[in-house]
């Protein structure tokens, strides 16, 4: 920390140092801002683990209209079409801006950007970096740019525990490091904290990413939306390592097949086959596993000895697990990968709480609907960071004149919550298990211990899943397999959730006993 809390009064505070947070800070320059990073800058973010690329209509046979159509189709009736159009039209220019900031995207021999194909895209429009290390390259370049920008004060090794609210609006952020708390006085906070994968046992996200931004916003009174929609990536490397290494969809884009232990290609008759929307592929893999089969991704015919050159990161992860992807099929299983729901925000990233913005995975912009189109997430984070930064810059700078509270909330720990969430909020759900989960989660959410914040987020997700009595996109209900004719977004506050969940409280429930 290079400045005292008093010196930072009134500056915008950005919580999170993945792609969305780093870009927001850079785009606010030269206005002085504070960037809070839980880990050393450039480490421990979901962005760092992103193998997939950024979707943008850059090819001669492509257009924003085609990108729009593919996104709407994947979103299964719940996308905000206006929001989608704004993002896909801005995406090509955003790629150019990232290149100016030093991001080294993969190019062909003629120097033009190399465009890949991923599931549910009708055109080759995925821009990658270092083959399968796009997120790492984005964070490298953006973190270096942040280091060079004197207007950005980076607080590393610190985490935000609470938003401080006065008269219904943001008044500050309670930041913690080494069990000591500091209250930063500000009327402008941007949450860019990533997703909720750490609430699950099988996840491709950092285990520390369990919805901290959602908890901060919810406890401040913000409205959250579409929390029931959790995307499971169909092809995580089936190994004991956590987070689970991802086997990028781009491998299937190169022609790899999903097969069982007998070599049977079980998706051959599915529209789109291995490149069907992720919810379709994830459920198909889950059904095979549930029936006692094993599932493998076979790239021997399409890539063979070229695998390492094309996907060096994945090849290294496979070899570490004792698998040579050039000569052996790769064992895979679904894992939680991305959260389509989040803090409900408007076109400028503003939440329902004055002074609070959100961008990246923690925000629900309306782009993804019920099922995210592959490689739209990094694009969304980069595009929406610009809009949020513009809105924050236009908002008045204020600092509270009161002495802000610094009582230290417990450090969050999701370990007690993971078994409940993994069972109730998996690929296929049912009302009875969800009600049991609500009863088990409520005491944790109402407590003042380490499980409280993760449980509050999980409880809101559970109630949203209970209320959606249909199967749509990534939300599949065994007891409501049909799609409702009315497509509608779900919205919740924490107070509403706690009141509703009290009706499910039953200490005799199996999940409550197991917890």
TrEMBL record:
GO cellular component: a single term: cytoplasm
Assigned EC number: 1.4.3.16
GO molecular function: L-aspartate oxidase activity
TM region positions: 12-29
GO terms of biological process kind: 'de novo' NAD+ biosynthetic process from L-aspartate
Every Fumarate reductase/succinate dehydrogenase flavoprotein-like C-terminal domain range: 456-486
Catalytic reaction list: L-aspartate + O2 = iminosuccinate + H2O2
Cofactor(s) it depends on: FAD
Protein purpose: Catalyzes the oxidation of L-aspartate to iminoaspartate.
Identification of the protein by name: L-aspartate oxidase
Source organism per UniProt: Pseudaminobacter salicylatoxidans
